[in-house]
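Q: Joint fold for the lines below.
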Amino acid sequence: MAYIKVNNDKVTPDIAKKLIDLCPFNAFEYQDMYLSINASCKICKMCVKKGPDGVCELVETKKACVDKSLYKGITVYIEQRHGMAHKVSWELIGKAKELSQITHEPVYAIVIGNKISSIAEEALTYGVDRVFAYDDVAFNDFDAQVYTSVVESFFNNYHNNVILFGSTPHGRSFAPRVAARLKTGLTADCTMLDIKPDGDLLQIRPAFGGNIMAKINTPNHRPQLATIRYKMFNLPDQVTPFGDIVYPEIKDMTCERNTTILQTTDKPKVKDISEAEVIIAVGRAFKKEKDLELIQPLVKKLNAEVACTRPLIENGWFDAKHQIGLSGRTVKPKLIINLGISGAVQYIEGMKESELIISVNQDEHNKLFDISHYSIIGDIYSVLPELNKLIDNIWKVNA
Amino acid sequence: MKIITCIKQVPASSAVQVDPKTGVLIRDGNNVKMNPFDLFGLEASFKLKEMVPSSIVHAITMGPPSATEVLQEALYMGADEATLISDRRFAGADVLATSYTLSQLIEHISDYDVIVCGKQTTDGDTAQVGPEIAEFLHIPHIPYVKEIIEIKEDALVLRSAYDDYEEIVQIKTPCLITIDKDMNTPRLPSYRRKLMMKNHEIDMVSLKHLKDQNPDHYGLSGSPTQVDEIFPPQKRTETLKVKGSSKELAESFFNILKESRYV
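A: Joint structure:
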């Protein structure tokens, strides 16, 4: 076992106070000139690294080491529903291929479902070396326990080093069961991934509510598991398939279900700018309602919701539920593009938490530029037509 | 019906930061509170009890001795029993070791029908402990529960919400459910219950009460993942000003969208 040992012969009231102040988790207790550590300790080792020399030390008994050379392959779990793969799966294949450049491991995909050969074929087009397709009527509806048994069988047969899951509602419900079944670690919602040449996966994620990043590894267990959110990594280019598809035997698995799906309802798609992932917001620089047509190619390309400032509501160009600002909606999309908006403080308060802010305005001292990631200094009437030409071109290339 | 509800004490403020120079964690006060997501879990447990009035709601938590505060709060809200599991040897537990410890505690309590968890905590944000507990106990689980529709002899019927669809699902008991936020309006601790439960004993459990007493399965030793390093997040980049001709501006704009993977 591992714990922090306090060498009390070196503890003075002064040192005790220093350590109590240093510990972020309030784990030190100093009573009757004796310094002890309670169950709040998270073994962050701050007292060992930053405390007075030799007072606190980490005592760790040696553990049997896993032979890392026995585990090869970076595998991506391909999430699918009704024969449609979730795109996060393809993004993860792209990342897995990057990581495999460092460790020279093969990249695999695992698909579980009923009649999934087309998804297996699609996975090959993203350049995986092999797809393991567990195709059976028993896997028609997702069941976390049954799917866990499949991944368990896969790991026991193929001894994978890493398995990556999308941080989707399914992934978040199912990957933890896999971790507990295989008695290994799992890091949720990684924002970055890296790998050491010996195959140790470095899992980087925000900790303590996003003000701190933590680099996490799984030094002595295999497989290494991580979940990653959609749109965290790039969608890789498709290639001419070179891998193959394997349909492993199903017979040894427990497929008994403890859940029965009685009814499934697709949620109606509600259009609400506060839920939108991409917003194009327009302001008073648009002189006529008809000029809003200029934004249509961009709206279509980005699948964006359109929002506006208060003057345009007053003009009657939009319904009030499209208004951003203190008197309208607060939005926090992944991307917001502000076009010709002067940047009143009420507007800025309504959107400043957006993840990526791009603003176009001809006034270099526009207030919105202070909070924008990208400030494009120009007139919307000249920038947008040029942009539309570029968008037009990619439609033609893709067509 | 015996309902076990898992709750956690979390820092009241998320404003913990890393000092970029010294690498020391700076905390903003020592205030703690109940994980807000657990309030919905407790309320769901009380609703289950209203559906089957003979039920017992048993709140459990893992943490330092001071975590009894959240158990007290649960008792004042409506829980019938409360247990704290605490031991120095649990220090440094990751998701696996935490889930394993809680599953050992739940086996120690035994004879449960439903385990209720909040969707996630505000300090760890992983949403993984619930499903891992279920796996260790070899029972099924359903996440993101929005509604408890029916309690049957040996099953629950639930409505559960995923990103773009909802499911009505029947799950065999014993089982574990995680409760989506806004499923209900959590009640406040009541003064009447406070008077009633003021002297109610909170059960204290440590490693020596558990079936598996091997300390290597708990705390840092029982944790496959380790934190290598903590560091401050990258600061938001200064605004990048783009100037030039209309054509150049449009090209830059297009490239920004391309780099951000939007076109």
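Q: Anything notable?
A: The CA atoms of residues 262 and 299 of chain A lie 38 Å apart. Residues 380-398 of chain A form the longest helix (19 residues).
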